[in-house]
Design goal:
The chain has 20 helices and 16 strands. With 730 residues, it is an alpha/beta fold.
């Protein structure tokens, strides 16, 4: 009790010292009310609840379709109801492959059969649950039975294949072995298949994720030699969600694709393995010694191959429809019930999932509980709050995607913003999202104290960013993919955020049997102090969006950010042109010298295709016009607006993000509608900003690049028109 009182007292002192004279979107009078409300909200947060709930939720494995996963969903629903929410479960029926056969053998030169099993560890009873543990595999690998020579491809990303090509090494007809990291795992089999490989193996190298980082579990947090990272290899850059119902909800009676026609199932079989199982395979390789940057931490010489190592990979899955249970809890707003502020975190896990996702889920629940207490004391939100616990996130963002696709039309009319969380731990605030929300998130960051350092989480984030080579200004990172914000922002065009703490919680438990409560308590956030900080941060953002007089979207920082993206692309295009021109001048010089002295040997590289001068002026012009409009909009004094004007203004502001989408979507992947942010086609989770233009430039598809410039300029023109209409209305 004494500790709680001291914590509350320090929080009150911090808030009084850091009280802001104004909060974005609030009148002076309502700023004081909101600050008092947030202090009351923070005082109700209890770390003990997070601890207790994690023990309950992570007690058994609970991937999608399991009995314990359903029990968790029902329990979450019951908690929300007890806190005063109208809570229901919405179930979708989604394709989920469960492994039946997993066989990996080194056939020659020395036989070895992969164990494919992680060992239980002392002091962690959850790792000894035997058959209850989900076998290690990659969901949405194709069934297959292949035997071929092995080739080591480093991380299996585009630049690695460029090096292989220079070395004269072809993976066609081969099985590749790639290290985890370097990109999202699904890119590795995707690229391998495009290069002609017939199978893919992925392992965690100890230099990246094992004893090269620190002591291994159970002595330390890092991956031991038998640990294996599970994960989906669905081609999510094409579309996430149920592979059989692209673009529409996987309801019980939905029309489904034939599995053989599902484009997001990998084209080749792929299997994850431990570094214990990887070492004999890699040691059996010969051929060129791998470049220094490719070598890992195993006590072997890393060779590339191909061969003489020959491996046999056989995979077979039970492909069946399973129920995905989403919990949707609603607290109706008093003034604007048809304007929704949404919060979400998934509840399914690959195994126990203490860190991923339960650490984020329990923070969301504690936030919702504290809000419920405020409501019971008369502090009802002006806008409707919708808290969501998603199922089937791990195999491909399935639960949230199906729900968004099923309710898309209503969501596009009613949702103000979506705030996402996922795994959480000790360290620094990580915040990404729509840059129209950047100013508001920065203000919230200045009002929340860091549990360790006492300074604001904004100050601590800025300090870390500067050490890492960034600047002092508070900035959101751009959203690519990788969690449940994806369908909201990328498909439905709803302003979104993704929040979490980390940086001092490194470990190797990710998607393994070791992501357990004991591991989390020892190495991640022992006192759940950063779980409370996450609840405090996300809760304040939710309450500000719910109660703001004018929705706190700010477009000057948005404009500065988007202008920076355009400058990046233009600069990169100029660099590409200069590089090609220098190369072609060297070729011409060599040819001239060869003609003058035919006996003299010269390298005769081929000329490269010239990089044309792209016309970026349509984008520059639209951004210049937007700057004028945004400047005018920022001068509006909200305290002078009538209730009717405020209602009309907010109705238009909440639709602004949707104007940044295009119904036809991005080239070759129409599911992705947003024209400012998207996951990269060959980066997976990694973001590509101004994606239509940027990716066309990177692929040297100059006609498409120019077409995408025109398309994006029309999007910006429509956005400018939308903001002008808001300004004129006022």
């Amino acid at each position: 009790m004494k500790h709680q009182l001291l914590t509350l007292l320090s929080a009150l002192i911090f808030c009084s010292l850091n009280a802001q004279e104004s909060i974005l979107g609030f009148t002076p009078e309502n700023t004081k009310k909101q600050q008092q409300l947030e202090v009351a909200f923070e005082s109700k947060l209890k770390a003990s609840n997070l601890d207790k709930w994690m023990q309950r939720m992570a007690a058994e494995p609970h991937w999608v379709g399991t009995a314990y996963g359903e029990k968790n969903a029902n329990w979450i629903q019951k908690q929300f109801k007890s806190w005063g929410y109208d809570a229901k479960i919405e179930t979708y029926h989604v394709l989920f492959p469960y492994p039946k056969i997993r066989l990996l053998e080194l056939k020659s030169p020395t036989p070895y059969k992969a164990k494919l099993k992680a060992v239980p560890v002392a002091g962690d009873e959850f790792t000894a649950q035997g058959d209850a543990l989900l076998p290690s595999y990659n969901a949405f690998s194709r069934d297959g039975d292949v035997t071929a020579e092995l080739v080591f491809v480093n991380y299996g990303i585009p630049r690695d294949y460029e090096i292989l090509e220079k070395l004269g090494i072809d993976v066609k007809g081969k099985i590749v072995i790639a290290k985890y990291q370097g990109s999202w795992r699904g890119i590795k089999p995707k690229l391998a298949a495009e290069k002609g490989a017939i199978g893919c193996i992925i392992y965690s190298d100890p230099a990246d994720d094992g004893y090269g980082r620190g002591d291994v579990y159970p002595k330390g947090a890092f991956k031991n030699k038998t640990g294996v990272q599970r994960g989906s290899v669905m081609d999510m850059p094409t579309y996430p969600g149920d592979v059989l119902t692209p673009g529409y909800g996987a309801t019980k009676d939905a029309k489904r694709l034939d599995r053989k026609d599902a484009p997001t199932i990998t084209k080749i079989p792929v299997l994850p393995i431990s570094y214990e199982d990887a070492q004999p395979l890699l040691a059996a390789l010969d051929g060129a010694v791998a470049p220094r940057s490719w070598r890992g931490g195993l006590p072997i010489t890393y060779h590339i191959g191909p061969g003489p190592a020959k491996v046999h990979l056989k995979l077979e899955f039970d492909w069946k429809l399973v129920p995905a249970h989403n919990v949707i809890a609603t607290m109706k707003g008093t003034d604007f019930p048809d304007q929704w502020v949404m919060r979400g975190n998934h509840h399914d896990a690959w195994v126990h999932g203490a860190n991923d996702p339960v650490s984020g889920m329990v923070a969301l629940m504690e936030e919702a509980r504290a809000v419920g207490e405020l409501v019971k004391k008369g502090n009802k939100p002006k806008r409707t709050l919708v808290y969501c616990a998603w199922d089937a996130e791990e195999p491909g963002l399935i639960g949230s995607t199906e729900w968004v696709e099923d309710h898309k039309a209503e969501l596009q009319q009613k949702v103000v913003a979506y705030i996402n969380t996922d795994g959480n731990g000790r360290g620094f605030l990580g915040a990404g999202g729509s840059h129209s929300l950047q100013a508001m998130v920065g203000q919230v960051g200045a009002a929340v104290a860091d549990p360790q350092k006492g300074v604001s989480i904004k100050e601590r984030k800025s300090a870390v960013d500067m050490v890492r080579g960034g600047n002092e200004a508070f900035e959101l990172y751009a959203l690519g993919s990788g969690s449940d914000y994806t369908p909201f922002i990328q498909h439905a065009g709803i302003a979104s955020l993704n929040l979490g703490f980390g940086g001092e919680n490194a470990g190797g438990e990710y998607h393994t049997i070791y992501d357990t409560y004991p591991h989390y308590k020892r190495f991640k956030d022992p006192d759940f102090a950063y779980g409370v900080a996450l609840a405090n941060t996300a809760g304040r953002i939710t309450l500000r969006l719910a109660n703001a007089d004018v929705l706190p979207f700010e477009f000057r920082q948005w404009h500065s950010t988007v202008s920076g993206y355009l400058t990046e692309i233009m600069t990169e295009t100029d660099k590409m042109r200069t590089s090609v021109e220098k190369h072609n001048m060297m070729v011409a010089k060599n040819m001239f010298e060869l003609a003058a002295d035919p006996k003299k040997p010269f390298l005769k590289p081929a000329k490269k295709e010239a990089v044309p001068y792209m016309d970026f002026t349509p984008l520059q012009n639209e951004l210049a016009k937007l700057k004028i409009t945004i400047s005018a909009l920022s001068k509006i004094e909200i305290s002078t607006l009538s209730k009717e004007r405020l209602l009309s203004l907010n109705s238009r502001l909440m639709l602004a993000e949707r104007v940044l989408t295009s119904e036809e979507g991005l080239p070759r992947r129409s599911w992705y509608k947003h024209q400012i942010y998207a996951p990269g086609f060959y980066t997976g989770y990694g973001v590509k900003t101004l994606p239509g233009v940027r990716e066309a430039v990177e692929e040297k598809n100059w006609k498409e690049a120019q077409d995408q410039i025109i398309k994006l300029s029309k999007t910006l023109k429509n956005f400018n028109k939308h903001l002008q209409e808001i300004a004129a209305m006022l």
